[in-house]
Amino acid sequence: PWPKYRHDAQNTGLSQYTGPDKPNVVWSRELHSSSSAIMVTTAIVGRKNSIYMAVNDMAVNDTVFKLDEDGNTVWTVGSGNFSGPMLVDDSEDIYIVGPDSRKFLRIDRMRNFTEVAKTDSPNEYFIDTNVAGRGFALLTDYDWTGGPSRLLSIGKDGITDWSFSVDEFIADLT
Q1: What gap in Å lies between CA 104 and CA 120, rounded to an integer?
Q2: Cα distance between residue 136 and residue 3, in whole Å
Q3: Backbone φ and ψ of 97, nearest 5°
Q4: How far apart are CA 9 and CA 113, in angstroms?
Q5: Percentage of the residues of the chain whose pLDDT score is greater than 70
Q6: Cβ contacts of 27 within 8 Å, gap of 6 or more
Q7: Distance CA 162, CA 146 (A)
Q8: Residue 124: C-alpha distances to residues 14, 19, 75, 163 (Å)
Q9: Which of 88, 109, 111, 155 could form a disulfide with 77 if both were Cys (CB 3.0 to 4.6 A apart)?
Q10: Could you count the other beta carbons within 10 Å of the beta carbon of residue 75?
Q11: Residue-wise pLDDT tens digits, 39-53
């Protein structure tokens, strides 16, 4: 499994498996967009070898893809403006920073959306996520020019366990 950007809670970017001596491409997938501007989140891999990624075409046609291990589409779901990053849990529920970076959403196996958390202010944005304790650590920033940041611990039930504010910009949860 590769459940999040940079693999694990320590953001090592390392797998416990040794890759092949001479790697070769097994399959590739071209993603199309109705817009010329396209951004693809880092692919994440669930426990059942399902591959998840979000395609943001900088318009309203954002899509989360679930692919099987051969690159075939299992399902897609689109709604709003996904900004990533994504996480996948052991039950294969997807967690993603959603509309305008102000909401943290769960997409369950039936493709239903649930709001897990939202920012407290219209000037506050989620900029990074990580796995922590019984749920997630979410990093927020109050303005993109380096205003105060908050680190929150939020359970899967959406309840904030704790919050810590600093008067400087924190770039990520490394």
Answers
A1: 12
A2: 13
A3: -75, 125
A4: 24
A5: 68
A6: 70, 71
A7: 22
A8: 31, 40, 32, 14
A9: 111
A10: 13
A11: 667 788 888 888 888
Q: Give SS3 for 101.
A: helix
Query: Which residues on adjacent β-strands are paired with residue 78?
Result: 63
Give the residue carrying structure tokens 């880092």: 42
Largest CA distance in the chain: 50
**Residue position matching structure tokens 């927020």:** 140
Report the alpha-carbon distance of residue 2 to residue 45 in Å, rounded: 5
Q: Please give the C-alpha separations between residue 10 and each of 22, 53, 98, 160, 162, in angstroms, as whole numbers.
A: 28, 21, 23, 21, 20
pLDDT tens string 58-69? 655 678 888 898
Instruction: Write out the two tokens for 27.
Output: 């399959």
